[in-house]
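REQUEST FORM: STRUCTURE PREDICTION
Request ID: SP-0412
Submitted by: Lab K.M.
Chain count: 1
Length (residues): 210
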Amino acid sequence: MPYDIAREIEDLQAMINEAGSSAYVWGLSSGAVLALQAAARGAGIAKLALHEPPFVVDAADRKPPKGFVTHVTELIAANRRAEAIKYFMTKGMGAPSFVVGLMRMMPGVWPRLMAIAHTLPYDAALLDGYMDGKSLPAELWGTVTMPTLVLEGTESPAALRHSAKALAGVLPNAQLLSEKGLGHTKKLDTKIIASKLAAFFMDKLSIQSK
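STATUS: Completed
RESULT:
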């Protein structure tokens, strides 16, 4: 069956139904885009945490090449998984080439990436249309009215930070949490992230105005 974002949203809603028809949802990177799309389509999300969605909203930021989604899909269809990973990370996400080389040497990392490489076209499809260096339309997610937290790491690349700020600015009921240690381009700091999510979900998060 061809990939369809709607099927992913249905899967998420099925999990929420099992949890009691309402849930707190956290999405990271392309997962944040999926969670956002699900919320916009009426999924049973009581609170939403969106962690560094990789939109490209500033014309000066690096953008993927034209045909990005098509090329990722073609590489996977040809079972050229290693090439697809490198292309997605360097041309799509803007990672330096040496980062891919480092991942090949890190114990266990490369085999895990190869095992899920077939999902890269799905990530690309989720981001299609939102990586062109254009502002996010203010009306696009007007139905996402539940309390929403947008997280970004101060150590993250500029494009991710621009994306987080832009998204927090267009959502009706969102606040931006910007702190060191919340970036996701390296190993996740799970302790810091979990503490911030727990505070948000339990209404105990305090964000200092800047």
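NOTES: The first helix runs from residue 5 to 18.
Reviewed by: T.R.
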